[in-house]
């Protein structure tokens, strides 16, 4: 590609130059030089290689580090958001800074190695879906849309792709939103692959600053 609409720093980590492997080997992690990496992202935008630049899996603290030297603020922070990991504080922080949160794994990434079935198997969501004649996926996606955030949902199935778009001509009732807000919370994607005793993040708490 010689152009992309949105170019993101995938995780707040760097690895040794010249090695392109996933998962990154524990001994290959390096602290990210936020100032230099963000300056290079800005250069990509200035050169017209990308329309917008952003970050992904960044905590408020790490966004604050980027903003302290940024000339162009991140347009987007792409993070896990779904009814089982609602990220209310992060969404509020990003809103104050003019950064759009985009939800990845909005269905909990069901069926993937990093995912959870807690969203699709949620009794609260199932009950709302049944009452409203919608699917659990549609209730989850409508909920995310009502949080004022972007959503990237993934399906390889044509019918499910269509279903996932049919969320714009109805809304959740207040009591339904309230029930969703009371669902027990927990991340699906912990980021363990990005922790290392040799790297900047020894624990998952170091990644998320919480
Ligand atoms: N920035 C990051 O670090 C990061 C991390 C994780 C993911 N992502 C990106 O976020 C996007 C979406 O997240 P994700 O793939 O992790 O999770 P997701 O969209 O929550 O879940 C995808 C799974 O849900 C199934 N699905 C989709 N629509 C459905 C429906 N209506 N009913 C039932 N099942 C449905 C899909 O199966 P079928 O294909 O069979 O429909 C697939 O197994 C992806 O493009 C991914 O690359 C980014």
TrEMBL record:
Domain NADP-dependent oxidoreductase: 2-183
Record protein name field: NADP-dependent oxidoreductase domain-containing protein
Pfam family, one: Aldo_ket_red
PROSITE patterns: ALDOKETO_REDUCTASE_2, ALDOKETO_REDUCTASE_3
Species: Cinchona calisaya
SUPFAM superfamilies given in the database record: NAD(P)-linked oxidoreductase (SSF51430)
Record InterPro entries: AKR, Aldo/ket_reductase_CS, NAD(P)_OxRdtase_dom_sf, NADP_OxRdtase_dom
């Amino acid at each position: 590609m010689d152009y992309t609409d949105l170019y993101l720093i995938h995780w707040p980590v760097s690895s040794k130059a010249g090695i392109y492997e996933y998962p990154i080997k524990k001994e290959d992690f390096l602290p990210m030089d936020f100032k230099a990496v963000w300056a290079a992202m800005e250069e990509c935008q200035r050169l017209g290689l990308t329309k917008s630049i952003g970050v992904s899996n960044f905590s408020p603290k790490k966004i604050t580090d980027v903003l302290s030297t940024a000339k162009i603020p991140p347009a987007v922070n792409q993070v896990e958001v779904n009814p089982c990991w609602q990220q209310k504080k992060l969404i509020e922080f990003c809103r104050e800074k003019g950064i759009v949160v985009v939800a990845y794994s909005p269905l909990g990434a069901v069926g993937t190695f990093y995912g959870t079935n807690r969203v699709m198997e949620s009794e609260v969501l199932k009950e709302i879906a049944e009452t409203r004649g919608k699917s659990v996926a549609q209730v989850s996606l409508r909920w995310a849309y009502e949080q004022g955030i972007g959503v990237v949902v993934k399906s390889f199935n044509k019918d499910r792709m269509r279903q996932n778009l049919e969320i714009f001509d109805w809304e959740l009732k207040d009591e339904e939103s309230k029930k969703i807000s009371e669902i027990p919370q927990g991340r699906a994607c912990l980021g363990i692959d990005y922790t290392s005793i040799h790297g900047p993040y020894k624990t998952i708490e170091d990644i998320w600053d919480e």
